[in-house]
Specification:
three-stranded antiparallel β-sheet; mainly alpha
Length: 302
């Protein structure tokens, strides 16, 4: 009779039971989640809709969402750790994180683009992790923490210093590739001439921010592959950089070819956005291809 009454309660009762079990496992999950939301909700609001939006590349919230998913993937392993917390060290790190947040938030109110406010979230999460599971817990979820670095825009001075040489290198490589295919192309700096058209290679097409984003995709792929070999992990992480550069070259070359055959309107319209999708597909495809090559050479993907 007891089993019959439990089954009659339907899926709602099962969902409630699951919620109770989750609450028993993570008694502080809800208040901590609400606290973090209250703390960093205004930060990300400014980032999307406020003065930070000018420096946003559009991928930052996706990076945060991926980091949360990575934390969730490791939650079971984290719960099973029989590891004591480090309350003293956690308190020190939390104090530093909250001080960095307060100072960065103050600068934000003065409309000063300070990355201190964004970077403080890593310290706050690190403190919570140390308080809950100590150093062993940090070894479990170190990657989701570091992955949050990709949610911060790069300093404008660094972008300015690196982007122009990077755009020139991408432009020269794209022109050389199209020259091999007998397209009538030429280049002057970051301006590519094809037929009667001239195309300016913009920062969004081949800038440091784009390379930074593609490196995040590469590192995420390497982490999900979970290589057991340290040298394999390091090698694939390093190769993510030339893979991202090659993807940039392919994107620019595609836009040049589309403009040559279909006109400037086509190259700057739908195909411009579609080439951005191709950018990520090519970068990921190159990493998968390199991974398959290593499997053939060494007989394992680990």
């Amino acid at each position: 009779m007891t089993a019959a009454r439990a089954s009659d309660q339907g899926p709602g009762a099962a969902l409630s039971a699951a919620a109770r079990r989750a609450w028993q496992r993570w008694p502080l999950a809800l208040p901590l989640g609400l606290g973090l939301l209250a703390l960093y909700g205004p930060t990300y609001w400014d980032f999307v809709f406020g003065f930070w939006a000018a420096e946003s590349q559009g991928h930052e919230l996706l990076v945060v969402a991926v980091s949360l998913w990575l934390f969730h993937r490791k939650s079971g392993e984290l719960r099973e750790l029989a590891s004591p917390g480090q309350p003293v060290i956690a308190a020190v790190v939390l104090a530093l994180g909250l001080a960095a947040y307060a100072f960065g938030r103050y600068l934000s109110q003065l409309h000063v683009n300070s990355r201190i406010e964004l970077s403080s979230q890593i310290l706050v999460l690190l403190a919570l992790l140390l308080a809950y599971r100590g150093w062993r817990g940090l070894r479990v979820v170190w990657f989701p923490l570091l992955f949050l670095l990709f949610a911060m825009p790069l300093p404008a001075s660094l972008v300015t210093a690196v982007t122009m040489p990077l755009k020139q290198a991408v432009s020269a490589s794209a022109v050389a590739l199209l020259g091999l295919l007998d397209y009538p192309v030429g280049r002057s700096g970051v301006v590519i001439t094809v037929g009667q058209y001239q195309l300016l290679v913009a920062e969004a097409c081949a800038g440091l921010q784009t390379l930074f984003t593609l490196e995040a995709v590469g590192l995420l792929y390497v982490n999900l592959m979970a290589y057991q070999s340290a040298w394999r992990t390091v090698l694939m992480s390093v190769l993510a950089v030339p893979a991202a550069f090659t993807a940039n070259v392919v994107r620019v070359a595609i836009l040049v070819v589309v403009t040559y055959h279909f006109g400037d309107a086509a190259g700057q319209g739908f195909m411009h956005g579609f080439a951005g999708i191709v950018l990520f597909v090519v970068a990921l495809g190159l990493l998968i291809g390199l991974n398959r090559l290593f499997e053939r050479l060494f007989g394992t993907n680990r």
